[in-house]
Design goal:
The chain is an alpha+beta fold and 404 residues long. Helix content is 44%, strand content 20%. The chain contains 6 helices and 12 strands. A hairpin with a 5-residue loop joins strand 2 (69-75) and strand 3.
Length: 404
């Protein structure tokens, strides 16, 4: 009896111990190991700066248990890189993603994330000037962020997600290589030497970022700027100039039509310049200086043409002939340079093919109309008796502003 009772107690105790061990073993993965779903992670509740549906994902397999994962896309128009980086992180630790030109730590720039006392991510940018602790200096000047500084989200799977948009064309730091490292913090919160590190050749796929983001807003502003300048310099002003040259027989209606086109064109130019100035603050592609310089020069020519019309001499004034030469010459120069600058802008802005084709069609129609009307005008002028031919009446100068 007593032996059986003792044996039964032992079995009961053993059963309780087994149950406790089973429960603990099931709980350990939840609280101890990292749970990173990789590219299948739902970023909708982790990223608020931009939409992530168009980003391309890659898991780098480092470290094995909770690897770095990068979602990225470089916008075709603005060249702004939209990125989300997930990294392994736990309290009293740090994790970083660096950008290097040659794969080396020294000379690179890194985003390092730590956790505050309440578990909120703290993201700082460091320049890694040498391998000493003193050589790791907080310095955000080498990365040009678009739409604000990086933001972070920390989940309880011991993974941090940082999201940001950066313009590497304007940044001193270049993303030829990704550097990945993590380690511990000193008791004072400063960064200790990394525990593990690795580096990988960077690859950011080009494309178009969907939804409203800093990059998409830049793209929209770029299209508005281009559309205004094409409408002004590429359509309204040339048509107004052709009215002044070829429609003189409808006096005085031609003058009012001409002035209307030129005023509308000049208004589009002003709006386009204002948009371009704002755009240049956030968008610094290659060859921008040439496009901006030529654009400002054209704007000055447009202002001079408007002033010339306002201060034009009377038709019977002796200097009227010279005013016609000046007004026509500046107008021809402005319209020619405008074509050059529009194509330059379409090139540096990496405009969509439909956008380029639209302007090419407009330009082709204008050139065809000019050729036909010019031939008709010269035929009519040649049929006039020599005594009735007048440069001011028969074949006026092709000009922005006209000779009135």
């Amino acid at each position: 009896m007593g032996g059986c009772g003792c044996g039964g107690s032992r079995v009961a105790v053993l059963g309780v111990v087994c149950a406790v061990i089973t429960i603990l073993s099931l709980a350990l993965p939840t609280f101890g190991a990292a749970t990173n779903p990789g590219c299948s992670a739902d970023l909708s509740n982790k990223v608020t700066k931009f939409q992530t549906g168009s980003l391309k994902c890659k898991s780098y397999g480092f470290p094995t248990s909770n690897p770095y994962v990068i979602w990225a896309l470089q916008d075709n128009v603005t060249q702004v890189a939209t990125m989300v980086v997930s990294m392994p992180l736990s309290p009293n630790k740090w994790a970083g993603i660096g950008f290097s030109t040659d794969g080396q730590m020294v000379g690179s720039t890194a985003l390092v994330t730590t956790l505050s006392s309440n578990g909120a991510p703290i993201i700082k940018v460091y320049s890694l000037n040498d391998r000493s602790q003193q050589g790791v200096v907080e310095d955000a000047s080498k990365l040009t962020f678009v739409g604000g500084p990086p933001e972070g989200h920390y989940d309880q799977g011991r993974t941090v997600y940082i999201s940001f948009q950066v313009d590497f064309t304007k940044s001193t730091a270049k993303a030829n290589w990704f550097l990945m490292a993590f380690g511990s913090l000193y008791t004072d919160g400063s960064i200790d030497y990394h525990e593990q590190r690795n580096y990988f050749k960077a690859s950011i796929v080009p494309g178009t970022v969907v939804g409203e983001s800093a990059a998409s807003k830049l793209e929209k502003k770029s299209k508005i700027h281009g559309s205004l300048q094409i409408l002004g310099w590429g359509l309204l002003l040339p048509v107004g100039a052709m009215v002044a040259r070829y429609a003189r027989g409808f006096d005085p209606a031609w003058f009012y039509v001409h002035v209307t086109f030129q005023i509308l064109g000049f208004a589009c130019i002003i709006a386009g310049v204002a948009t371009g100035i704002q755009l240049a603050k956030d968008f610094q592609p290659e060859h921008l200086q040439a496009h901006r310089g030529l654009g400002l020069f054209l704007f000055v020519l447009a202002i001079l043409q408007v002033l010339a019309v306002a201060w034009r001499p009377k038709k019977d004034a002796k200097i009227r002939k010279y005013w016609n030469w000046y007004h026509g010459g500046v107008g021809r120069l402005a319209l020619f340079l405008a074509v050059v600058n529009i194509f330059l802008g379409l090139s540096i802005g990496k405009a969509e093919n439909d956008f380029k084709l639209g302007y090419i069609i407009i330009l082709a129609i204008e050139l065809l109309a000019f050729a036909i009307l010019e031939v008709l005008l010269w035929l009519r002028w040649n049929r006039q008796p020599r005594g009735e031919r007048s440069a001011d009446q028969g074949v006026p100068g092709f000009q922005f502003g006209g000779s009135v």
